[in-house]
Design goal:
The chain is mostly helical. It contains 21 helices and 5 strands. It has helices spanning about 5-25, 35-45, 50-60, 65-80, 85-105, 110-125, 125-130, 135-160, 165-180, 185-200, 205-230, 245-255, 260-280, 295-315, 320-325, 325-340, 345-365, 380-385, 410-420, 435-440, 460-475; strands spanning about 395-400, 430-435, 450-455, 480-485, 495-500. Strands 2-1-3-5-4 form a 5-stranded mixed sheet, with helices on both faces. The chain is globular.
């Protein structure tokens, strides 16, 4: 009679099924949502002039390094310039990060632990969103996973007294590539080096040299490229710099990492199991072992500290989206927690916890249906609605923008016209600054029923109502506000607003 598979088998099978569905879901509904402002900026950088030199020049106008933009340029030159193509590129990168995590942590965590972390990862709002976002975050996840894997391998080889040359080279290469994609990948690199500084005393001078070199290169890039070429304001930003802002962004980061009840429940099971194991073993007084697994516990807090410090000292930059480029280290912490708790329970406790986690993983599979629901600013949908209005083609329509994001009105109007005009090309777009609209200083001569159109820069219903009142004051006529909301959004956030004459 054959051996009956244990609970770990069923647990691993359930987790693998949840991961497989989540990974496949990254390629479902690539064109469900409209492009939003940041993605439209990517399309502006990539351009349609088929010139790598021109794309690089446009990429240097951002505050992010150009590696993602140039990769996106090559992808569009090869496969075509469309939202599906660029979002599929992000999906491939984000999906690749998950099995890479499984591989690079194979000597650190058990199979069930890695699958638990992967299940939580592919169910998280951050991963789900960024695998269909034509921005650099999918590439960041892939490179951050490589950084994590190289750091784990380096710590293990140094501990065992084995040569570290090739592993160190892989670590430096992945850190250098990451720093060419996103500013917070520099923080990931420095936090990883600081953690290795503690774990590998013999190589401390090497880590100091690497960290100093990467930092010096970044400051040179800031001085010679960003300050000279960026179209964005470095002094004014939508990003806050208050205690409340940091608290809210940290809470959003938590919610974006654990985005549904089954995943929160899995983490709670792991935490409860770990607490039970620690209480059971407390009388043994075993010494605390600091090894490569400590990386996942050290890097994330260090990135938080670096992000908040740079926001306070340099310019505001701390957001949940930026912080979560270090997500692979969070996945490592989740795997560590499972091995610390569930894997070390007694037989009855381990079987019970495994069954609960397996059921929760299977329940999470239904979350892939969210891929069919639009989640981004409805530029496309509102443009189609305006285009359907009789008498508006070829007429002047005002688009609402703000002047605090860009470093000059010229840049604000140029990028605003591109974003609004991507989906609505048969009208004359006229800039309308938000502050002027609210104050009743709008100078408009509407030639069709649609007076003005606001999306992204006009992001809540209260402000939209203030704009409507201001337009009434400046035009001396009745103005009706039409709101095109995203499904499930009751506060008007993420909506498009269209101002009409009756």
């Amino acid at each position: 009679m054959g051996k009956i598979p244990g609970p770990e088998y069923f647990l691993s099978a359930a987790l693998a099924a949840a991961v497989a569905v989540g990974l496949a879901g990254a390629f479902i509904g690539l064109n469900v949502s409209s492009l939003w402002a940041d993605e439209l900026f990517t399309f502006w950088v990539v351009g349609n002039d088929h010139s790598a030199a021109a794309a690089l020049a446009r990429a240097q106008s951002d505050i992010h390094p150009p590696l993602y933009y140039m990769s996106a340029f090559l992808v569009t030159e090869t496969f075509g310039r469309s939202p599906v193509v660029l979002r599929a590129f992000s999906a491939i990168l984000g999906v690749a990060a998950v099995p890479l995590f499984y591989y690079v942590t194979r000597k650190t965590y058990s199979i069930p632990a890695r699958l638990v972390a992967m299940t939580i990862a592919v169910s998280s709002w951050f991963w789900v969103n960024q695998t269909q976002n034509a921005r650099s975050y999918g590439l960041c996840l892939l490179i951050a996973t490589a950084v994590y894997g190289a750091a784990l391998a380096l710590a293990a080889r140094e501990r065992d007294g084995r040569p570290v040359g090739w592993t160190l080279a892989a670590l430096v290469l992945s850190m250098a590539l990451g720093s060419c994609v996103h500013p917070y990948m520099l923080f990931v690199a420095l936090a990883t080096l600081a953690s290795l500084f503690v774990l590998c005393p013999r190589l401390r001078w090497v880590f100091v040299l690497i960290g100093g070199s990467i930092t010096a290169a970044w400051f040179a890039y800031i001085h010679f490229v960003i300050r000279a070429h960026t179209v964005f304001s470095l002094e004014h930003s939508w990003i806050g710099n208050t205690t409340g802002w940091y608290r809210d962004e940290l809470r959003t980061s938590w919610q974006a990492s654990l985005s549904n009840k089954p995943m929160i429940a899995i983490v709670l099971v792991c935490v409860a199991s770990a607490a039970a194991v620690i209480m059971r073993d407390r009388s043994r007084r075993q010494p605390v072992t600091i090894d490569g697994r400590s990386l996942c516990l050290l890097v994330v807090p260090l990135v938080v500290i670096a992000g908040i410090s740079s926001s306070m000292i340099l310019t505001p930059n701390f957001t949940s989206r930026n912080l979560l480029v270090c997500s692979p280290f969070i996945w490592g912490a989740e795997a560590f927690l499972f091995d610390l708790g569930v894997a070390r329970l007694g037989t009855v406790g381990r079987v019970a916890a495994s069954i609960v986690v397996a059921v929760l993983a299977l329940v999470s599979i239904g979350g892939v249906s969210a891929r069919f629901v639009p989640v981004r600013t409805p530029f496309r949908e509102s443009a189609r609605w305006i285009d359907s209005q009789p008498g508006c083609r070829g007429q002047a329509i005002a688009y609402v923008i703000t002047d605090g994001v860009y470093n000059s009105p010229v840049e604000a109007e140029r990028h605003g016209a591109f974003e609004y005009g991507y989906y609505l090309q048969d009208v004359g777009l006229v800039p309308l600054y938000l502050k002027d609209a609210i104050a009743g200083r709008a100078v408009l001569n509407p030639s069709c029923r649609v007076v003005a159109w606001g999306a992204h820069y006009l992001n809540d219903s209260h402000t939209a109502e203030a704009v409507r009142a201001g337009l009434v004051k400046s035009l001396h006529r009745k103005i009706v506000l039409f709101t095109l909301s995203l499904p499930g959004r009751k506060d008007g956030g993420g909506a498009a607003y269209i101002f009409l004459t009756p």
